């Protein structure tokens, strides 16, 4: 068996006396589509912040491809293939879609350190950026300034930026947040169509999407991993049901898993 | 236009963006007008060219990377003193004088950039302000070297290329300053259109997002800060060479504030913003101070308030908006 693409060991974090993550052990095998679910405040985004280095853990280790990356700054984790997107669009408002993605590609190929040659001298970077936008159906608007793009297109651009870094592990924090239902299916179809070399972990509240697109599910509650397993097991798990039924009936996994 | 832009392909589109526009060529041709129209104002013209170069260097960090500095005159002053001192002690060759200034200011810029790159916003403004004040006071204290309050005397700039003397009317001085400005403008223009330039705009647009696309923002900031410092140093050196004196105010707070005002007036982050701002500021100063010398800041104040209120992206930003509207209708 191969080493997992990403693993955490005893990961913990607290803000003062508020414990937001404790003793988190997860293991993501290569190429798997994982959903990370749990009620609001369960610590899902915190976990992504810890894994990507936006937050420093109080204890525990993060292992990417058999290498301990716990001490690496965020940008070096990215260049090793651990990449995230944001729940709220975090884009470059006045850059065009093509410029934004070309920027991310240039950072990966290190062309972004070159200040004595014009961007035109890097046709491979430009073409690659254009191809990524094309794969996400953004080619037609690639010269549009980011802030003028439709919201759904901005969500796709988030993913395009992440893909431009050639991720091995992609962490998507509510990729379809704020997107109308029919569009969010398209967005997830794009995610499902990603290369099988990429391991994906996504946070999502819409259980229909979770059960349709995840091959495995991790359930978090109160900063801990409650359970982990394939969708049919999670749907049948009484503990999970208790968590969701106690909060909000409509979100219950069992209700939408068909 | 809107239809064709996606049709012509990404490479050609980006290439088209770097092409020289007619307005740009006109602008640079117009810089020769002082020789024909205002031969009595050539020394003012060279002061403007120097201020424009200084503002251009600030634009690289403020307009493109979003690093607000209130101490940029430090590098202007270092360049001026470096060239002035080398000249005073026997080497007055102009071009190598510029190189020495660029090197001195660039080295100090790179050294301070290690602190600069760790901060943003108000902390950064205070830091640059602090560095500037520190250096100004240092130059004041080292009177034996810098001449202190009396300024650095005894500078002698040699003839350009060994035969073109700096005359009293500033004919050579303006041409010299203009050529240096143009060459460094070409350099800045190329830098802005480089992958690195794109990265700087990314830092300005969303600093927090940069690490998430794998960008070493701090390293980028260090590079551009050193480059901008070196260019500011060249501007200072030009002033030292053409006026053959360096005074303490070349690295004072007032000069730092002045250059920010120029850039804001013209429009930050647009390459020509500093140049246009410098022209307006220097001409306004010359005209207003001719009317009532002690009140000329009043008018600059009025101008600044008006521009910030009605043209938040500077005069060039306002013009760009106007032409865009005109082009659409």
Question: What attributes does this structure have?
Answer:
heterodimer; A: 258 residues; alpha/beta; Rossmann fold; six-stranded mixed β-sheet; 10 helices; globular; disordered C terminus; B: 329 residues; 16 helices
Structure description:
The complex is a heterodimer of chains A (258) and B (329). Chain A contains ten helices and ten strands. Chain A is globular, with a radius of gyration of 19 Å. Chain A has a six-stranded mixed beta sheet with strand order 6-7-8-3-9-10, with helices on both faces. Chain A has helices at residues 44-52, 74-79, 97-109, 123-135, 151-164, 181-192, 207-213, 231-236, 238-247, 253-256, and strands at residues 6-15, 18-28, 33-37, 59-64, 67-68, 82-85, 169-173, 199-203, 216-221, 224-229. Chain B is mainly α. Chain B has a domain at 40-251. Chain B has 16 helices and no strands. In chain B, α5 runs parallel beside α10 (171-192) and α6 (73-88) runs antiparallel to α7 (94-116). Classes of the chains: A alpha/beta (258), B mainly alpha (329). At the A-B interface, α2, α3, α4 and α5 of A face α2, α11 and α12 of B.
Helix and strand arrangement:
The complex is a heterodimer of chains A (258) and B (329).
Chain A: E1 6-15, E2 18-28, E3 33-37, H1 44-52, E4 59-64, E5 67-68, H2 74-79, E6 82-85, H3 97-109, H4 123-135, H5 151-164, E7 169-173, H6 181-192, E8 199-203, H7 207-213, E9 216-221, E10 224-229, H8 231-236, H9 238-247, H10 253-256
Parallel strand pairs in A: 3-8, 3-9, 6-7, 7-8
Antiparallel strand pairs in A: 1-2, 1-4, 4-5, 9-10
Helix pairs in contact in A: 3-4, 3-5, 4-5
Chain B: H1 2-7, H2 10-17, H3 22-30, H4 33-37, H5 42-64, H6 73-88, H7 94-116, H8 121-141, H9 143-146, H10 171-192, H11 195-205, H12 217-243, H13 253-266, H14 273-291, H15 296-310, H16 314-328
Helix pairs in contact in B: 5-10, 5-12, 5-13, 5-14, 6-7, 6-12, 7-12, 10-12, 11-12, 13-14, 13-16, 14-15
